[in-house]
Amino acid sequence: MYKVSVTKSLTDSQVNEILDIVINSSEIDGARPFSEHVEIHLRSGGDRPVIHLLAEDSIKNIVGYGHLDTTDLVAGPSGELVVHPDFRRKGIATQIVSEMKNIVDDQQLRLWSHGDTVSARNFSKKLEFESVRNVIQMRRSLFSPIEAFNFPPNYNLRQFDPVHDLEIFLAINKESFADLPDQSSWTKKDLELRLAEDWFSATGFVLLENDQKDVVGFCWTKVHGQDHKHEKDDGHKHLDHGHEPIGELYVLGVLPSQQGKGFGKSLMLWGLNHLRRNGLDSAMLYVDSNNLKAIKLYEEVGFNFWGLDRLYRSFT
């Protein structure tokens, strides 16, 4: 009854159908089914060769979608998938994963689960996937006190320039996150796609320079849900419902040679103050569960555990 097909490109109509499933699933599950990176590239076409898996019913309506990235030659192929809430428990997700495993052949497939739902845990257990990485979401109120941020007199904050600072940012981003390939591998295209997003604001993105004008750190903030509403009746219950905005410490990095000087904490405090000055009530961030040093720092400035994303791997 349901057929899974494979393609390397999507039509605009197919993208719209998939994004509609994303919206419906997000409302039911309480979490987005895809990572930001996947969703941005899905909407824009992206520049990385990925494999799209479409689950369709008998009249060619898309009821499920899988995104398979085979470009990571070190960690291996990774997939993310979603099934429309009205078509779950029909074996569609199993079909999509089975086809992914056929495509990658003898390689070990990785699957992301966003939100760490019970259904995702049961599904992974059923297909004999094991949890290998956890990414924690932390949040804090912006009504509670925020420490003042201070930098040495020979260091200065300046606003990121989307025209002239691309290569500067990519270089420091790569060095700061050498142990996190998902972040350090950003290309110029990856950065440009984010700068073109509606949520991007240069005022929420600062670079930290020393007296030689060398950039040694940065803090990039983001606002989710601001002025987000549907302009026409597309059948969704949330028509004209503005989602409650929340700020995010999106990316924060300090060169390894400059770490241990308190720059990371001061940049974080700048970000929190910036978000509060913009009228936001709360802030969030993501951190790997094994990054105990960072978690301790975040807890010191008032962040607490909120949710979890899991990465599963098939060893069979």
How far apart are the termini?
Answer: 28 Å
Unreliable spans are 227-242
Q: Helix-strand pattern, N to C? A: EHHEEEHEHEEHHHEEEHEHE
Structural class: alpha+beta
For the secondary structure, the number of strands is: 12
The name of the CATH architecture of the largest domain is 3-Layer(aba) Sandwich
Instruction: Please write the CATH class name of the largest domain.
Output: Alpha Beta
Helical segment count: 9
Oligomer: single chain
Q: Please give the largest β-sheet.
A: 12 strands, mixed
Which of globular, elongated, flat, extended, rod-shaped describes the shape?
elongated
- Strands in their spatial order, largest beta sheet: 1-2-3-4-5-12-6-11-10-9-8-7
CATH superfamily caption of the largest domain: Gcn5-related N-acetyltransferase (GNAT)
CATH fold title of the largest domain: Aminopeptidase
- Gyration radius, in Å: 21 Å
Instruction: Give the amount of beta strand, in percent.
Output: 25-35%
In the residues, how many domains can be counted? 2
What is the mean predicted local confidence, pLDDT?
90
Helical proportion?
A: 25-40%
